[in-house]
């Protein structure tokens, strides 16, 4: 580590500090882990069967939605209960574009993003005046409004329980089987994750974090809190609607009942369990929450206990609730924090504290 | 000689693992006496009171060294309501009253949360509190937020008094009050000390005011006790006169000449 | 006349739940989103005990005890530790508890619909309207409890201490109030009130997992009235009851939620702290 420019009496230390050493993507051994991860990711459809591949695909969609929500609720600290509403907008775009216009996949996505941005804008306006709790209520209102409107749309316009959409035609092939979807979703999710990481380090993202951390101080520093909140809502709702549209196309059938408050809470659980404000947390949380019911079923199947169908959903809920409460009690910073501590432990062992110079910039 | 009611020895308080607010502070308060703790802003006076009454965790601070003993037993680490139950009442610096309650209710809170004295009839009760504080009598049903600063201060003292304390920690009683009111409040405290034998630890920036009723005083600076002595000694001390009482001596030129105030030259000048 | 009685019944139940919410919010600054689930859990206990043929002398204490146990457990085991964290954590914890309770209800009670059996089945006439005694009990019972709560808060020692804690926690501690105990009492009381509400609700409506909507409506009522105001909670409950009743009569019940949310948004847009809430509340983020 180079020494910063020497200070002389009366003058603060000067730059330059050698930056190459402080900013980097991965170093040394971590490239190995990355390689290993890539191999696993590429061969995943071969490793697991269709059932678990399906769950993985669901998780990937969830990752996108969770990343969006985490930027809003974790970084900008705008608690949003409207997640299901924005996802529903994505679903609606997918369904409506296909049903009425027979439009291709891309159009649906584009419309989803556009409508999502508009909805984000609409929700953001009242929240500029209100404080945390009431922002959450406004988003709840959005949820109820959008889901009710969607239900009415399905009942009156489509006149059926759901809309069926064709598998998307990407031009060079059609996304029909599970594996194709997997690679597609994996790439898109990866792009969104990288985008989110960059977004967080950009001017916009830093403004969100500042506003989320301390509004008054940010305002005093010259950050327009209103613009920051507006942009946070708009950008994140675009991401979430995008995810909703993809999810809708993946399912193939779009119903109104899917977008309920339970879904919004599931996403909140994802970012809480994963870790508020952390992109890694969004990923971990999305996978954990999505896999949870299926793992539980597997566990029950392995144990061989006979459980009535009704009680099963109850068991899911109990576990779910325990997970949330447990994390809030013992590790409010989520799995991301658990991960960091584990990683630090393994990296540093047998030492216990990381020397200050090598503190990696997060 | 019996041990003083309150013994603080070599206390060290650290805020957030980073800022050492007090180091090696020792204060003794005999039963039935009035002791003053004075100093400029940031000297560590409020931290001392917080350490005694148990409010440090609220500010993310902790006692890292030293002892605090009340009536012979250690109270270091006790929670605020535990210290209150032992007989330490605090009249805080800000937020002296509950703004949504009336004056009477404010005082009543002190009474309802009082410690068990074991006496059959406490000397100060809800019925005779207004004899001690006649100014509050006609304001008793007024919402506390609508009452003047001096009256709020009196109400806060009354509430603290009703919890049957043995030691009252009075934090910045003169803040925001006109000198006349300050004198009135202080003489009220003096009366309480004389009539009820209540021990007082008076913390104040206004040295003259604090020393007007105290018998013994400690002067704090930057987390250290730099001087202590009886009131007469302190009032006669040259440095105290210059820097706290506002009386300048002829031979002093500037604070730079005073040994205690010699600062090391820092690189940012 | 029958409509008035019905509205007052509904309002009474909501008022009780809303008062519980306000009590919890005032003392611990946490929005208990699990209020509905907790009330319905107690209602299930009531339904099961009466369904098993046990008289009310047994059923009522059982229900109230359930409420007290839930309240005590939630506070002393869970909430106490997270009060120091940011408010978001507290709210999300109550969400977790709500989910947990829902699951438990499904497992333990099977998620079926029940009602609380009542030995009072006679029909009386009041002001020209024929009313079953069950509904009368709900009406009288709920508002009596509301009165109790108000008296408790404004005229008793515990109420005074709770008001002090709600005003300024630090100052309350400095005055020697045992904050832990007061907040614990608040939680237990709020849950007992919720148990009463659940019991009464079971008198007039079906109890199922879906019945937890009463918690949502009570939340809306409390928000409209002002989250830290007892009279506000009552007014809010009345408003919610009226809106719900009217929309259910005119349109279908599906629209009741939308109407309520719309009402809440309108009120909050013009008075973000509720009709009777303290203005300062908003400054706390």
Question: How would you describe the overall organization of this protein?
Answer:
The complex is a heterotrimer of chains A (362), B (269) and C (285). Helices cover 72% and strands 2% of the residues of chain A. With 362 residues, chain A is mainly alpha-helical. In chain A, strands 1-2 form a two-stranded antiparallel ribbon. By secondary structure, chain B is an alpha/beta fold. Chain B has two domains: 6-87 and 166-261, P-loop containing nucleotide triphosphate hydrolases (Rossmann fold, 3-Layer(aba) Sandwich), CATH 3.40.50.300; 97-165, no CATH class. In chain B, the strands form two sheets. In chain B, strands 6-7-8-3-9-10 form a six-stranded mixed beta sheet, with helices on both faces. Chain C is built from eleven helices and two strands, in the order ααααββααααααα. Chain C is globular, with a radius of gyration of 18 Å. The chains are: A mainly alpha (362), B alpha/beta (269), C mainly alpha (285). Chains A and C meet through α5, α10 and α12 of A and α3, α4 and α11 of C.
Task: Sum this structure up briefly.
By secondary structure, chain B is α/β, with parallel strands linked by helices. Helices cover 32% and strands 25% of the residues of chain B. Chain B folds into two domains: 6-87 and 166-261, Rossmann fold, CATH 3.40.50.300; 97-165, no CATH class.
Shape of chain B: globular
CATH architecture of chain C: Orthogonal Bundle
* Poorly predicted residue ranges of chain C: 281-285
Name the strands of the widest sheet of chain B in spatial order. 6-7-8-3-9-10
At the first level of CATH, the class of chain C is Mainly Alpha
What are the secondary-structure elements of chain B, in order, as H or E? EEEHEEHEHHHHEHEHEEHH
The major β-sheet of chain C equals: 2 strands, antiparallel
Using the coordinates shown, work out and report the CATH topology of chain C: ABC transporter involved in vitamin B12 uptake, BtuC
Gap between N and C termini of chain B:
50 Å
Number of domains of chain B: 2
> Helicity level of chain C, as a percent range?
over 70%
Give the CATH superfamily of the largest domain in chain B: P-loop containing nucleotide triphosphate hydrolases
Work out the number of β strands of chain C: 2
Q: For the CA atoms, what is the radius of gyration of chain B?
A: 19 Å
